[in-house]
Design brief:
By secondary structure, this protein is mainly beta. The chain has one helix at about 90-100, and strands at about 10, 20, 35-40, 55-65, 70-75, 80-85.
Length: about 100
């Protein structure tokens, strides 16, 4: 499998407008405050090949034994669902709310 380039940039959230810093150890792909994302990846995390570019709503969260907390986003335009690893500075209260609502 080809390696995707790591794009780790600061950004303003399109949903809540919070300024998101770079991720300390990886690539940030969702807002640390409201957990919303953008549909920028097509096939692989970090490929930034999607033409959709729409908001992705966080719809559930669960714990994965190997990866830790996972947040699942659903594109508000095309409906694609993609899992994303939670970042250490994500709003943990919101993650717990998502996990509680998904059970």
């Amino acid at each position: 499998m080809p390696k995707t380039p790591k794009i780790n940039e600061t950004f303003a959230c399109k949903n809540c407008r919070a300024q998101n810093p770079e991720h300390a150890n990886s690539c940030r792909n969702h807002c640390y405050k409201c957990l919303y994302s953008l549909h920028v990846d097509k096939n692989l995390p970090g490929d930034r090949m999607s033409n959709c570019q729409s908001l992705m709503q966080p719809i559930k969260a669960d714990q994965n034994g190997k990866k830790g907390w996972m947040i699942y986003h659903k594109c508000m335009e095309c409906g694609k669902i993609m899992p994303n690893k939670a970042a250490p500075d994500d709003d943990f209260g919101k993650i717990v709310e998502l996990a509680s609502a998904s059970t």
